[in-house]
């Protein structure tokens, strides 16, 4: 018997907006409803993701090199996890995807539209994209409260450019801008409301 189609959900936003927090809570909620849920993140914990994460401390690559690494990481992610899980009718929830590439490498001068074209040549478009939106100052404060110091990807001015690129996606039918200055519970209620309405 053909399995039901999977559901592909992506959470995006600048560092500190609450993506990891919301991804975890959404996955738990859907599992409690009996859905098989795969939660994952980008950069992944695979070899290319590890190389990228290392540069957050050692110093960033050029924007073009970063783009190449993220594309390699994502190709593996799509082939080994995302596509098979969706084909089996599972729910896939990602903490970051190619929209972060548009934002972060776009903020360094690579054309976001070209980044999107290169990614959508192999990466499936999600059914739902939640953009968690928050002012940069509050986001950086949260990163500090988490016990982290801002890394090479978390500079104020570049995050402000990233935020603009994320918000530029609003208006597309699968995109939902979620104000993330409220409590974690209130933010999760908004997200669940959209998922429920599908
Ligand atoms: N709605 C919220 N209100 C206040 N604090 C929050 C909220 N959501 C998350 N936090 C806290 O802010 C910090 C960042 O949250 P989280 O790690 O989920 O963000 P993130 O978007 O995944 O960050 P990054 O992209 O850097 O991994 C954590 O300490 C978390 O507990
Ligand atoms: C997917 C993706 C991510 N990034 C950046 C954004 C973050 O600052 C770091 C690490 O991500 P995390 O959420 O803090 O774990 O990677 C990027 O520049 N381009 C991308 O495509």
From TrEMBL:
E.C. no: 2.7.4.9
Name recorded for this polypeptide: Thymidylate kinase
GO molecular function: dTMP kinase activity
Residues of the Thymidylate kinase-like domain: 11-191
Annotated family: Belongs to the thymidylate kinase family.
EC class (word): transferase
Top-level division of the source organism's lineage: Bacteria
PROSITE patterns in UniProt: THYMIDYLATE_KINASE (PS01331)
One Pfam family of this chain: Thymidylate_kin
Record keywords, A-Z: ATP-binding, Kinase, Nucleotide biosynthesis, Nucleotide-binding, Transferase
Binding residue positions for ATP: 13-20
Primary role: Phosphorylation of dTMP to form dTDP in both de novo and salvage pathways of dTTP synthesis.
Reaction catalysis annotation: dTMP + ATP = dTDP + ADP
């Amino acid at each position: 018997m053909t399995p039901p189609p999977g559901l592909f959900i992506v959470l995006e936003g600048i560092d500190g907006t609450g993506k990891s927090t919301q991804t975890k809570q959404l996955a738990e909620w859907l599992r409690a409803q009996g859905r098989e849920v795969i939660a994952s993140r980008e950069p992944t914990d695979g070899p290319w993701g590890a190389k990228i994460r290392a540069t957050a401390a050692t110093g960033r690559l050029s924007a073009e090199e970063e783009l190449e690494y993220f594309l390699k990481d994502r190709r593996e992610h799509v082939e080994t996890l995302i596509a098979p899980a969706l084909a089996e009718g599972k729910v896939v929830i990602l903490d970051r995807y190619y929209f972060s590439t548009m934002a972060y490498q776009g903020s360094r001068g690579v054309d976001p539209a070209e980044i999107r074209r290169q990614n959508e040549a192999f990466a499936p478009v999600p059914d739902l994209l939640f953009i968690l939106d928050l002012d940069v100052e509050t986001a950086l404060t949260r990163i500090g409260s988490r016990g982290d110091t801002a890394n090479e990807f978390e500079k104020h001015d570049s995050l402000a450019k990233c935020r603009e690129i994320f918000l530029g996606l609003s208006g597309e039918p699968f995109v939902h801008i979620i104000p993330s200055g409220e409590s974690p519970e209130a933010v999760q209620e908004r997200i669940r409301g959209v998922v429920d309405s599908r």
